[in-house]
Amino acid sequence: MASFPPSVNEKRIARSRTVGELLAPTSPFDKKCGRENWTVAFAPDGSYFAWSQGHRIVKLVPWSQCLNNFLLHGTKNVANSISTRLPRQNSDSSQKNKPCEHIIDCGDIVWSLAFGSSVPEKQSRCVNIEWHRFKFGQDQLLLATGLNNGRIKIWDVYTGKLLLNLMDHTEVVRDLTFAPDGSLILVSASRDKTLRVWDLKDDGNMMKVLRGHQNWVYGCAFSPDSSILCSVGASKAIFLWDMDKYSMIRKLEGHHNDVVACEFSPDGALLATASYDTRVYVWDPHIGVILMEFGHLFPPPTPIFAGGANDRWVRSVSFSHDGLHIASLADDKMVRFWRIDEEYPVQVAPLNNGLCCTFSTDGSVLAAGTQDGSVYFWATPRQVSSLQHLCRMAIRRVMPTSQVKSLPIPSKVVEFLCYQI
């Protein structure tokens, strides 16, 4: 296992270029509690960006227009300066042809967001399909919002219309993730210690409850082929689930504190997890082995120190779509960009009170949300991937580690394909 400590040598690390800022509106009488931006999200096709401004409000903006505004007017942009609130039930089919901004009042504090897009060929698992209230077309784009009261609200992105109100969790819905295969299967992670699986093509029917966590569930993520779900939570918990059988595959052990975020690589061969123990681990999820460790405190803390308050809690982690770069956000007021094969961060950016981060759909921008409801954007490290890496990703998209290791090829090639060198 490679152990990568952070570098304090600023001469070796490039500063990321700021692309823009979306600053949440404030007033002198605003309560600081409730303004947190716990989640940011890009639509799968890159058409929209969404974030929680705090105080029940979610903002939806066309991403290409947002980038153009940054280029024309500079990096700073007050989030609601050019938008108008749309009625919740206002449905207009013409909106699909021209993306527009929406401000959505979700009725309670928003903790999680996720975009979902429909593929008509992916049928619901429900038998009585003729009784469905909603028939989602190919151009359907949904936004799921997880709330403080345990509810999940599903919105039509193009119209801002509320479609579904899912009620079964008894505590905060901390994270949401849609299956990438276009089936509109939604998984929710909650402080009630459960994950719940919903079929939105079956009018939001809850299909399954996944139990195993003994404490709060902080996050969840699908593998790119939608076959595996990773869930992370308090008490160092990392679980992998078979989403065909709805059964637990294995539990991953290695962190020394709560695990708060997870994400698979684009080929599904790697899994990144972020923890309050000051570390990001990169795993081979197929065999449960830690391949890389990115430390945010040097020298690395002992297990006892890592298990408590240490001023270096890692809050979020995100995998770039090139499969080579990982972004992490920690309490030391830094955003770090790592290469999976290098010892030190390749770029850094300053950020106060950061809570979450995610790469844009094309991987060119990283968005990060903060405690005051604002969003900051940086240009990401860019380079042309080697032909070897592109071939590796193509192979790993269809082959788990066990199959790769059984190939009749040189051992060094096997190690490369398994991300061990």
UniProtKB/TrEMBL annotation:
Domain SOCS box stretches: 377-421
WD repeat intervals: 136-165, 166-208, 210-251, 252-284, 314-348, 359-378
SMART domains per UniProt: SOCS, SOCS_box, WD40
Pathway(s) per entry: Protein modification; protein ubiquitination
Pfam families cross-referenced by the UniProt entry: SOCS_box (PF07525), WD40 (PF00400)
Keywords: Repeat, Ubl conjugation pathway, WD repeat
Biological processes annotated in GO: intracellular signal transduction; protein polyubiquitination
Keyword Metal-binding: no
PANTHER family: WD REPEAT AND SOCS BOX-CONTAINING PROTEIN 1 (PTHR15622:SF12), WD40 REPEAT PROTEIN (PTHR15622)
Stated name of the protein: WD repeat and SOCS box-containing protein 1
Organism: Falco tinnunculus
